[in-house]
C-alpha cells in the first residue's frame, strides 16, 4: 500500500481513535504494561494518545506519527496531562533519531501497519539506551487455528480498509529482530500480545 494512501486512512480514523481513550477493551492491558514507562520515553505511531492516562507525571515524552490528524488530536489530549511532550510528524520507518537516546520505547498496535516491522524493531534497539526497555502491546494472529484462518482470509480486506495486517505473528517478528524478549503475555484468545523487551 502506498504510504500516502496509508497516511490518509489514519488521518480519517483520528476521531474514532480519540473516542477509545476511556472506552477501550484493551484499557486494562495498556495500564498493565505502559505504567512501567520511565525517563525519556519515545512512543512510535503515537496516534491520538491513547496511552497518556497510563504514564507517570515525571516522564519526558516524544511522540512520532506520520498522520497530521492523529498528532493534532494527541497534542490536544496532552494538554490534560502533566508530563512534558514533544511531537514529530514523520514516518517511523524512515525517521532518523539519535542512538542510545531513550530510556523507554513504546509500541502500541503499530507493528500491523509497517512494511518492514523488523527494520523498525532494529531501530528500537539503536534508539534505546543499553539499560533501557521496549514495551509493546500489539495485535496479531490468534492461538485458535479457526480464528487464525479467518484472520488470514480477511486480511486483504482489512488491509485495504484500515491499513493494518490482521495475521502477523508478533512474537516471531520480534524474535527475528535484534531485540531480546524478557517477558510475554497473550490475551483475548492470543489476539493481544504484551511484550517486554531489552535492546
Topology, pairings included?
Blueprint: H1 3-19, H2 27-34, E1 40-44, E2 60-65, H3 68-78, E3 84-89, E4 102-108, H4 117-127, E5 128-139, H5 145-162, H6 170-176, E6 180-187, E7 192-198
Parallel strand pairs: 1-2, 1-4, 2-3, 4-5
Antiparallel strand pairs: 5-7, 6-7
Helix pairs in contact: 1-3
Briefly summarize what is shown:
By secondary structure, the protein is α/β, with parallel strands linked by helices.
What does it look like?
The protein is an alpha/beta fold and 199 residues long. The chain is 36% helix and 26% strand. The protein contains six helices and seven strands. The chain has helices at 3-19, 27-34, 68-78, 117-127, 145-162, 170-176, and strands spanning 40-44, 60-65, 84-89, 102-108, 128-139, 180-187, 192-198. Strands 3-2-1-4-5-7-6 form a seven-stranded mixed beta sheet, with helices on both faces. Helix 1 runs parallel beside helix 3. It is globular and about 45 Å long. The two termini are 30 Å apart.
Amino acid at each position: 500500500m502506498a504510504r500516502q494512501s496509508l497516511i490518509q486512512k489514519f488521518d480519517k480514523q483520528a476521531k474514532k481513535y480519540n473516542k477509545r481513550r476511556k472506552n477501550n477493551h484493551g484499557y486494562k492491558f495498556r495500564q498493565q504494561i505502559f505504567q512501567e514507562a520511565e525517563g525519556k520515553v519515545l512512543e512510535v505511531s503515537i496516534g491520538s494518545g491513547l496511552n497518556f492516562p497510563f504514564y507517570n507525571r515525571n516522564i519526558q515524552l516524544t511522540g512520532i506519527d506520520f498522520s497530521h490528524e492523529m498528532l493534532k488530536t494527541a497534542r490536544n489530549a496532552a494538554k490534560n496531562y502533566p508530563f512534558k511532550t514533544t511531537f514529530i510528524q514523520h514516518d517511523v520507518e524512515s525517521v532518523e533519531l539519535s542512538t542510545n537516546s531513550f530510556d523507554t520505547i513504546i509500541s502500541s498496535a503499530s507493528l500491523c501497519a509497517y512494511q518492514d516491522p523488523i527494520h523498525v524493531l532494529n531501530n528500537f534497539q539503536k534508539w534505546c539506551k543499553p539499560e533501557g526497555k521496549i514495551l509493546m502491546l500489539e495485535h496479531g494472529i490468534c492461538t485458535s487455528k479457526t480464528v487464525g484462518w479467518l484472520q488470514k482470509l480477511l486480511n486483504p480486506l482489512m488491509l485495504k480498509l484500515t491499513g493494518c495486517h490482521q495475521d502477523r505473528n508478533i512474537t516471531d517478528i520480534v524474535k527475528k529482530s535484534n531485540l531480546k524478549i524478557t517477558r510475554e503475555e497473550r490475551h483475548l484468545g492470543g489476539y493481544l500480545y504484551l511484550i517486554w523487551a531489552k535492546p
